[in-house]
């Protein structure tokens, strides 16, 4: 700044105030003063460019760090939310299993007490039916036997629904599972005229409790056989879903009513036939696998959809 | 160059710390650490070099900073150190480098390791000088030291220093 003033003062002396010529030494001083100023400014420019560049980089780094922190924060929030949800689910499952364990003990006791006299009733009914063969009263005894059988079935379902069970998972080829299911269904319901079609990728394999999943599928086939009015055909389709295995059981009977569909999996909910526990048991088995089961009416028929999560996918 | 046995005078090291603070290149605890030096004691030259390289290493294009640190150090040496009592003009400053007198007042150790910073030629009427450096320190910083030193007394308006292609030989022009 001192040099600027000096040079400027000297120049002013020439240009504005007096018509006094500077001597050579003074002019040279002005010249070098301005030359020096130019050089200094150039050095200043370089210095500030270097520090500005560093500042710009620091700002970029800060902005990047901020973005990374924001992403990390969101991920943490998501993980936190997932963990909270898992804890909530875990607590709910624990409570449910505790409730079911207590309920199971109670039901097992009641069923045990009922089954003993029931067995006696069934035996006596059989003997009476033998004695009354070819007589009109035989029809009354037949009612007694049928109702005893129904009561026995109810006891079995109650036990199945209430007792805790552990899954016995193994690697199961889905196409084999579906074929075995149909064979078992045919053996249990030889009178059924349902046409059952299977469609599955031969490569599709899953870690499942084969017996339990088969129990669910047979239940759905029985459902179509007994309760889907006008059903002539059932289609079982298995396919890989997004991180899951999806199995659909679709019949062509009268579509399930919306109200019925929404309550179909409630224990003891029935449209007048059956114990009302079959679908509740099915849901329990699927949920034990970590999956879901849903029912939806179609334009013609009803579709049950089983979704078993990725953990069930083998290989 | 090995500087294991070379030491710098405290005021020299302190000048570096203060220069970095004044230029806002360091702050906070780092600045406090760099300036906490006894100006009358001797310190390993490695400490000087480490601090210098650490500071300029934070910048993507540090060359102008290296020079500016040297210039700023000389301001402090002149204003707050012994400089004002030693030199009265730019030429004084150049003469003070004769036989590395100035350099050796601040750096000590084996000759082969500490090197020299000495005036080789001085043409005062033409405003020309040549300085040769064999020190273990940064040449851009030394260019700044010369630049700052020549302008300390304020009577010189123009200083140009070239040290290319040989970085260790400084061709000085001053008017």
Main features:
heterodimer; A: alpha+beta; 2 domains; 5-stranded mixed sheet; 7 helices; B: 175 residues; alpha+beta; 3-stranded antiparallel sheet; 9 helices; 18% strand
Write structural notes for this entry.
The complex is a heterodimer of chains A (about 325) and B (about 180). By secondary structure, chain A is α+β, with helices and mostly antiparallel strands. Chain A folds into two domains: about 160 residues, no CATH class; about 140 residues, 2-Layer Sandwich (Heat Shock Protein 90), CATH 3.30.565.10. Helices cover about 65% and strands about 15% of the residues of chain A. A five-stranded mixed β-sheet of chain A has the order 2-4-5-7-6. A two-stranded antiparallel ribbon of chain A has the order 1-3. In chain A, a hairpin with a 4-residue loop joins strand 6 and strand 7. In chain A, helix 1 crosses helix 2, helix 4 crosses helix 5 and helix 5 runs antiparallel to helix 7. The radius of gyration of chain A is 42 Å and the shape is rod-shaped. The model of chain A has no long low-confidence stretch (mean pLDDT about 85). Chain B folds into two domains: about 80 residues; about 90 residues, Threonyl-tRNA Synthetase, Chain A, domain 2. In chain B, the strands form two sheets. Chain B has a four-stranded antiparallel β-sheet. With about 180 residues, chain B is of the alpha+beta class. Chain B is globular. At the A-B interface, helix 1 and helix 2 of A face helix 4 of B.
Q: What secondary-structure arrangement, pairings included, does this model have?
A:
The complex is a heterodimer of chains A (315) and B (175).
Chain A: H1 2-17, H2 24-131, H3 138-162, E1 170-173, H4 174-188, E2 195-200, E3 205-208, H5 210-227, E4 233-241, E5 244-251, H6 258-263, H7 278-288, E6 292-297, E7 302-309
Parallel strand pairs in A: 2-4
Antiparallel strand pairs in A: 1-3, 4-5, 5-7, 6-7
Helix pairs in contact in A: 1-2, 2-3, 4-5, 5-7
Chain B: E1 7-9, H1 10-22, H2 28-35, E2 42-44, H3 45-56, H4 63-79, H5 83-86, H6 90-95, H7 101-104, E3 107-108, H8 111-114, E4 117-123, E5 128-133, H9 139-151, E6 159-162, E7 169-174
Antiparallel strand pairs in B: 1-2, 1-3, 4-5, 5-7, 6-7
């Amino acid at each position: 700044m001192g040099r600027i003033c000096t040079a400027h003062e000297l120049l002013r002396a020439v240009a504005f105030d007096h018509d006094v010529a500077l001597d050579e030494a003074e002019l040279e001083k002005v010249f070098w003063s301005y030359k020096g100023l130019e050089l200094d400014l150039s050095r200043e420019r370089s210095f500030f460019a270097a520090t500005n560049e560093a500042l710009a980089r620091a700002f970029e780094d800060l902005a990047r760090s901020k973005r990374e922190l924001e992403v990390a924060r969101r991920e943490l929030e998501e993980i936190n939310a997932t963990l909270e949800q898992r804890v909530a689910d875990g607590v709910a499952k624990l409570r449910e299993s505790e409730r079911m364990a207590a309920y199971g003990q109670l039901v097992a006791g009641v069923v045990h007490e009922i089954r003993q006299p029931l067995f006696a009733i069934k035996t006596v009914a059989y003997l009476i039916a033998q004695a009354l063969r070819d007589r009109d009263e035989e029809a009354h005894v037949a009612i007694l036997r049928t109702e005893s059988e129904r009561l026995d079935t109810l006891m079995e379902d109650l036990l199945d629904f209430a007792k805790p069970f552990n899954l016995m998972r193994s690697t199961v080829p889905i196409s084999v599972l579906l074929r075995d299911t149909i064979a078992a269904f045919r053996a249990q319901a030889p009178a059924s005229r349902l046409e059952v079609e299977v469609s599955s990728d031969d490569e599709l394999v899953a870690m499942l409790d084969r017996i339990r999943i088969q129990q669910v599928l047979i239940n759905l086939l029985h459902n179509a056989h007994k309760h889907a009015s006008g059903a002539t055909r059932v289609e079982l389709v298995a396919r890989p879903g997004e991180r899951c295995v999806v199995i659909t059981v679709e019949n062509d009977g009268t579509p399930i009513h919306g109200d019925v569909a929404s309550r179909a999996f409630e224990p003891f909910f029935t449209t007048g036939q059956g114990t009302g526990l079959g679908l509740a048991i099915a849901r329990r088995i699927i949920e034990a696998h970590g999956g879901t089961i849903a029912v939806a009416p179609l334009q013609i028929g009803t579709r049950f959809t089983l979704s078993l999560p990725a953990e069930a996918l083998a290989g | 160059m090995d500087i294991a046995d070379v030491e710098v005078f405290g005021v020299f090291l302190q000048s570096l710390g203060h220069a970095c603070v004044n230029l806002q290149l360091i702050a906070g605890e780092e600045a406090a650490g760099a300036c906490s030096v006894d100006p009358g004691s001797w310190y390993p030259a490695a400490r000087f070099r480490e601090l210098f390289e650490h500071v300029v290493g934070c910048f993507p294009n540090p060359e102008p900073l290296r020079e500016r640190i040297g210039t700023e150090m000389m301001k402090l040496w002149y204003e707050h150190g012994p400089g004002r009592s030693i030199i009265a003009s730019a030429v004084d400053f150049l003469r003070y480098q004769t036989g590395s007198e100035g350099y050796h007042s601040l750096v000590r150790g084996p000759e082969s390791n500490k090197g020299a910073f000495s005036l080789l030629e001085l043409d005062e009427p033409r405003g020309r000088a040549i300085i040769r450096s064999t020190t273990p320190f940064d040449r851009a910083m030394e260019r700044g030291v010369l630049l700052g030193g020549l302008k300390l007394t304020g009577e010189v308006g123009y200083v140009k220093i070239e040290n290319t292609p040989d970085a260790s030989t400084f061709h000085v022009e001053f008017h």
